[in-house]
Design brief:
3 helices, binds fe (ii) ion
Length: 76
């Protein structure tokens, strides 16, 4: 159950990042654009925390993250 909660929460954080990015891209007010980008970055922090929880608690997630994160060269 906790893994489901983490995955759904991660999905929502990623969705929020995308929404803030789209709004910031279309925003003509400089100050509001800064707020939207700041909020987007906060959502990235939240997403990263959830990914770390998944890494610590779901073995295959940890294996895949170890395989791909921080590795130079081709991702594929
Ligand atoms: Fe968030």
């Amino acid at each position: 159950m906790a893994t489901h909660q983490a995955i759904v929460s991660l999905m929502e954080e990623l969705q929020a990042i995308d929404w803030y990015r789209q709004r910031a891209d279309d925003c003509d007010d400089v100050q509001l654009k800064e707020v939207l980008v700041h909020n987007m970055n906060d959502e990235m922090e939240h997403a990263a925390m959830l990914i770390e929880w998944l890494r610590r608690n779901v073995g295959e997630f940890a294996a895949q993250l170890d395989k791909f994160l921080g590795v130079d060269g081709s991702i594929a």
